[in-house]
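Long-time lurker, first post. I've been practising inverse folding by hand and with some scripts of my own, and I keep getting stuck on stretches where the structure tokens seem ambiguous. Below is the full token string for one chain I'm working on. Before anyone asks, I'm not after the true native sequence, just a reasonable design that respects the backbone. If someone could post their per-position residues I'd love to compare against what I wrote down in my notebook.
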């Protein structure tokens, strides 16, 4: 997969969930089988804001050439997605979401693995 493609996929996923969590957290959390209250609303909206930040980072960095800066962006997104993967996996294993929660776990696993791949040393042609 090309870096640009990965960043576009990341941006689209963040666009799909970020605004929902910011403006309609109750229906989304209910769909996932989670309880909803004032504390959940605060957390969901903060999470939505983080996703919107990831959206901006992924979209505006999608054309970045190989550089120290691009590597820092990849490392940032790798760490974010790896932490989110572990957190969502633990929530899912503890019954915090219904079966739809496995989709979220899978999305974070996908991004963790693909950003991790881009952190590996690349062979140079020649």
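-- Answer (accepted) --
I ran through it position by position. Result:
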């Amino acid at each position: 997969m090309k870096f640009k493609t990965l960043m576009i996929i990341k941006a689209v996923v963040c666009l799909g969930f970020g605004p929902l969590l910011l403006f309609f957290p109750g229906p989304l959390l209910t769909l996932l089988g989670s309880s909803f209250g004032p504390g959940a609303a605060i957390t969901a909206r903060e999470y939505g804001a983080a996703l919107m930040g990831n959206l901006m980072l992924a979209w505006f960095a999608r054309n970045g050439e190989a550089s120290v800066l691009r590597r820092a962006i990849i490392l940032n997104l790798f760490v974010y997605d790896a932490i989110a993967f572990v957190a969502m996996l633990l929530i899912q294993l503890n019954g915090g979401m219904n079966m739809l929660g496995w989709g979220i776990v899978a999305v974070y696993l996908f991004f963790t693995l693909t950003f991790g791949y881009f952190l590996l040393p690349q062979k140079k042609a020649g």
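A couple of notes from the structure itself: The chain has a mean pLDDT of 94. The helical segments are 3-23, 25-31, 38-61, 68-93, 101-119. Happy to go over any region you disagree with.
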